[in-house]
Specification:
The complex is a heterodimer of chains A (898) and B (114). Chain A is built from 31 helices and 22 strands. By secondary structure, chain A is α+β, with helices and mostly antiparallel strands. In chain A, strands 13, 14, 15, 16, 17, 18, 19 and 20 form an 8-stranded mixed β-sheet that branches. Chain A has a 6-stranded mixed barrel with strand order 2-3-8-5-7-6. The longest helix of chain A is centred in the middle third of the chain and has 36 residues. Chain B has a single domain, classed as Arc Repressor Mutant, subunit A (Orthogonal Bundle), CATH 1.10.10. A 3-stranded antiparallel β-sheet of chain B has the order 1-3-2. In chain B, a hairpin with a 5-residue loop joins strand 2 and strand 3. Classes of the chains: A alpha+beta (898), B alpha+beta (114). At the A-B interface, helix 1, helix 2 and helix 4 of A face helix 2, helix 3 and strand 3 of B.
């Protein structure tokens, strides 16, 4: 074995030396033979001749010896590589076109793959994150709320935990915002209250100290804390003796039911988590409460027995780790059964009694969100682009091989077998693809730069995208696949030369016609792919325009901003009517036409629902509607038309305004003014009646694409935080400082946040759609350009090839118009074939794009009219140029060569 | 190409050349020409080895480690590549000789039956 390897390596790397030795060995043989004949009495000349004859052809022997060295395949490959490099360097124009074509295709694939890599398969700082699942308890009563926005109440979470057999670990936690007070400064930090199995469920241990355990998580006791690595480094200077130190944390804001629990302010630090651990944060938690980017402090959940029985869904989340071998489906089935049981034992007095269902969502799915179908769509699109690029490269190689007929014929005559010719041509393709692969990494990097500029802001981890080793490995694999895809057709087709025909023609003729037919098929196939991409892009563009034209129910010129009050404003007395006074001051600013405030501004990702009971309606227990609280002047400032009745006056307690959708649903579209509604709680239904005083137009609230749900507005009084809406005749740049001054005149510590015109918010709401539309559009244009280049290349080549024939046609009386239409019709035939194929393909694939559409059908007639027209017009351009050249062939010139 | 009109020589069955080369090398190291001469001599001119098969075979055997080559001076005072049998080659020769004997014996039995 070893001698074998040594021999082969020597043959490979000391090639010239080994060859020289062989020459010498054969020479020695010849001399020995000659001497033998001389000794037998021949003359030296005759002896030499006899010896040569006996010896045979030295070159054949050499070749056979080489074959026996076991390095032939590799040697041939190296030889082909050298030869290919030389011949491509001579043919630089050809090589550049092929390399750039392929590089474009590979780079597009690489760019989209690197997105997938970071968005769909992020590295997570938890043990085996694929086993983690979230548990939710949706309820049909909350029809407008997504199922994964309703985590189980404590009562349900505890019940599930007790009865389940399928989880290795189960944790409950809440989010909480703190102010960390240190040495006189106040630092806002995001925190979480967690139970004793929180850290073990995630499978992460502290690097210092210990995690929160059973002894910390006791009812009514909350005095220990675990901190993040970042907080330890930044706030405590990485103090190695941090464990056991006290720190002061004050709850900044939390949901009302949690408020009474946060009496304690002093916490003993018991652990420091490893770097990068910041769970929970918004990318990994749907509908998180505080929208925290990173959690830095963890304190015990410390539930009281009463809280454990609480059956109203709140803001605590349930996360569990499945036991090994347990599937999500099994867990879902088990949870459904448990929830059905809990529905029965839940006290009937509970407001949403009985309607709970089970929903298990894998942790990874939360992470990826809506990005998965989008990325699949994009990957499909770039796959098409790459196929088109391969088709073009193939077509170019075929053309080149046709012009190499002479060379290939000579090689075949000299004894190169078909396999040998195929090997050589595949090596050419490999060489081109590898170069393209190298170029594509640079190109992909550029693509990514452009992609990040389009960042819609709601594709998770998009900004972390990079050309990492995964991505490069992908590029390499795609490159190798590309080389085969590109090389195989030309290799098979061009190696099938007819030797007899070649020799008869004196080495001039080759297999050319068949080649062109194959190229025509390739181009038609490319056109088909382009049609599919273009129709997809057109459908997305049409959807985008439809979404953009959706009536929002508000004026996009309105300026909006958030005011968030600190705990010092906790009671109504402390408020001292801050918002009404602020709004009065704002209305006094020159240029301001209207101003108002609302708790949940449209398109600001704030939602609120309320239970309700409606007069003269078949009410169901626990039915809910969307809700918001707003002040007088808000609708005017937003430009939302009042359709009937009137707006609120200052602090009106017992009246409400509803939207059109509300009137449609609860009053069958009839007059709602003067009817009453009540809170849905059974015991105070009669005491809490409120009268409808107005109806406003529907407003797109949570997204532009969902139809507005029935919504109830009540009058805003002394909120913790609210959005201001301001309409003015002067630009925002002048209004904002004046508003800030007005606010600071009331309280210098308050600040304005999230300052945007409604136009900005609409634009943000459109961002993901714009992202997918622009990308698919760009890839389609790229595909179209590649296919047109391919078409042009084929026709231009045909013209060059048929120059003599065209010359003859012209000489015997064909008009220039005849010649032009000859060439153009060849191209148009291909385009039509591709067009029909592509439309059929687009219809076959329509289900793939349906979920991305808004307001248009996947078989949208406008699209399927526009795309063929666009394609035919551009293709005609690509056909006319070579056709024009053909029409201008000089018959005298072209015939002279014959 | 063997000239069959003037030379009624035997064609070597596939695979036997390797065996014969190994055998000729049992006595002493030889160079390529020497091996072909020795084979011709021993077989009483019945076997003639084509150079086109001899040299590829020698290189194949060398690659397999059954023979090894050294350069030294030949009887006519010129550098020549001498091949000698390795230990592995001796084992291979013994095994192949045994296999050949059994094969010819078996074929002989069958042919003698008639």
């Amino acid at each position: 074995m070893l001698s074998d390897l040594r021999y082969r390596l020597r043959s490979l790397f000391l090639r010239s030396h080994v060859e020289a030795e062989l020459d010498e060995e054969l020479q020695a043989h010849l001399e020995h033979e000659t001497e033998k004949y001389i000794r037998a009495g021949m003359s030296p000349e005759e002896a030499k001749r006899k010896a040569r004859i006996a010896f045979g052809g030295p070159e054949q022997i050499r070749q056979q010896v080489r074959d026996n060295r076991g390095t032939r395949l590799l040697e041939n490959f190296l030889q082909d590589l050298r030869y290919g490099t030389r011949s491509l360097l001579r043919n630089r124009g050809f090589a550049i076109v092929v390399v750039m074509t392929l590089a474009l295709g590979i780079a597009a694939c690489t760019a989209v793959f690197s997105l997938m890599d970071v968005v769909l398969y992020p590295k997570l700082p938890y043990t085996n994150p694929d086993r983690l699942v979230y548990l939710f308890t949706p309820n049909s009563l909350f029809e407008s709320v997504p199922p994964d926005a309703i985590p189980p109440s404590f009562f349900f979470a505890q019940g599930i935990q007790k009865s389940s057999r399928l989880y290795a670990s189960f944790t409950e936690f809440q989010q909480l915002s703190f102010n960390l007070e240190r040495k006189g400064s106040v630092v806002p930090v995001e925190g979480a209250t967690v139970d004793a199995s929180f850290f073990s469920t995630l499978g992460v241990a502290p690097i210092l100290g210990r995690a929160i355990g059973q002894q910390d998580d006791q009812a009514g006791k909350r005095d220990t804390a675990v901190i993040s690595y970042a907080l330890w480094k930044q706030q405590f200077g990485g103090d190695p003796h941090i464990i056991g130190q006290q720190m002061t944390l004050k709850v900044y804001r939390q949901m009302p039911e949690a408020q009474n629990r946060a009496a304690n302010n002093s916490y003993r630090i018991i652990g420091v988590m490893p770097q990068g651990f910041h769970y929970p944060h918004k990318q990994e938690l749907d509908y998180g409460v505080s929208g925290a980017e990173a959690t830095d402090v963890w304190v015990p959940l410390a539930l009281t027995p009463a809280q454990r029985m609480n059956d109203e869904p709140g803001d605590s989340y349930s996360l569990a780790r499945l036991k090994d071998g347990v599937t999500v489906q099994q867990a879902q089935a088990e949870m459904s059964a448990i929830v059905a049981q809990l529905n029965k034992i839940e006290p009937p007095s509970a407001m949403f009694h009985g309607g709970w269902r089970a929903y298990i969502k894998p942790f990874r799915q939360t992470l990826v969100g809506d990005a998965r179908p989008l990325l699949r769509l994009l990957m499909g699109a770039v796959g098409f682009v790459l196929l088109i690029a391969c088709g073009n490269a193939s077509s170019l190689l075929l053309a080149r091989n046709a012009s190499r007929t002479h060379e290939l014929g000579v090689r075949a005559t000299l004894g190169a077998g078909r396999a040998r010719l195929i090997q050589q041509m595949l090596t050419d393709a490999l060489l081109l693809s590898l170069t393209a692969g190298a170029v594509s990494t640079a190109l992909a990097w550029l693509f990514l730069k452009m992609l990040l500029r389009l960042d819609p802001g709601n594709v998770p981890r998009l900004q972390q995208v990079s050309m990492n080793p995964h991505v490069l490995l992908f590029t390499l694999s795609v490159t190798l696949l590309t080389s085969v895809a590109t090389g195989i057709l030309p290799a098979l087709s061009s190696s099938r030369g007819d030797l007899v025909e070649f020799l008869k023609s004196g080495g001039n003729k080759g297999v050319v016609r068949g080649n062109n037919r194959l190229r025509g098929v390739l181009i038609a196939g490319e056109v088909a792919l382009v049609v599919m991409l273009l129709s997809g892009a057109s459908l997305l563009i049409r959807s985008f325009l439809k979404v953009e034209a959706v009536p929002t129910g508000f004026s996009t010129a309105t300026l909006s901003m958030k005011v968030d009050l600190p705990p010092a404003y906790a009671t109504a007395a402390q408020h001292r009517g801050l918002f009404p006074r602020l709004l009065d001051d704002i209305r006094a600013i020159p240029g301001v036409q209207a101003a108002g405030a609302i708790t949940n501004l449209p398109l600001s990702h704030d939602e609120s629902i309320t239970t309700l009971w409606v007069q003269d309606y078949a009410n169901e227990k626990g039915q809910t509607v969307e809700a918001a609280s707003l002040t007088a002047g808000y609708f005017g400032a937003m430009g939302t038309p009042m359709l009937a009745g009137r707006e609120f006056r200052l602090n009106e307690g017992n009246v409400v305004i509803v939207n059109e959708a509300f009137v449609r649903k609860y009053f069958a579209g009839k007059n709602a003014i003067g009817k009453w509604i009540a809170n849905g709680t059974p015991d105070n239904r009669n005491s809490n009646k409120r009268v409808i005083i107005g109806v406003v137009a529907d407003v797109r609230h949570s997204s532009l694409e969902e139809p507005p749900p029935p919504t109830l507005y009540d009058c805003l009084q002394d909120p913790d935080r609210a959005y201001l809406a301001i309409r003015s005749s002067v630009p925002p740049a002048e209004v904002v400082p004046a508003v800030r001054a007005a606010l600071n005149k009331l309280d210098p510590t308050l600040t304005l946040a999230d300052i945007h015109t409604m136009n900005d918010r609409v634009s943000e709401a459109l961002a993901l759609r714009r992202f997918q539309t622009v990308l698919l559009g760009a890839f389609s244009v790229m595909a179209l350009a590649l296919a047109l280049v391919g078409l042009y290349g084929l026709l231009a080549y045909t013209v060059r090839q048929r120059e003599q024939e065209i010359g003859i046609r012209l000489a015997i009386g064909a008009s220039r118009g005849n010649v032009l239409s000859l060439i153009v019709s060849q191209g148009v035939r291909l385009v039509f074939a591709g067009l029909l194929l592509g439309i059929a393909g687009a219809f076959a694939l329509q289900h793939l794009i349906r979920s991305f559409l808004f307001g248009v059908n996947a078989t949208d007639p406008v699209t399927f009219l526009l795309v063929p027209v666009l394609l035919l017009l551009t293709a005609l351009g690509a056909c006319v140029i070579p056709g024009w050249r053909a029409a201008n062939v000089d018959p005298a010139d072209s015939l002279r060569y014959e | 190409m063997a000239d069959s009109k003037t030379d009624p020589k035997l064609e070597l069955p596939q695979g036997t050349l390797d065996l014969l080369i190994l055998k000729t090398l049992t006595l002493e190291p030889l160079h390529g020409w020497g091996i072909s001469e020795r084979l011709q001599q021993i077989s009483r001119e019945a076997l003639q080895v084509q150079q086109g098969s001899l040299y590829p075979a020698l290189h194949r055997l060398e690659r397999r480690g059954w023979i090894k080559a050294t350069w030294s001076t030949s009887e006519n005072n010129r550098r020549a590549k001498y091949y000698e049998l390795t230990k592995q080659g001796q084992k291979q020769l013994a095994a192949e000789t045994e296999a050949w004997r059994r094969l010819t014996a078996a074929v002989g039995h069958v042919l003698d039956m008639a």
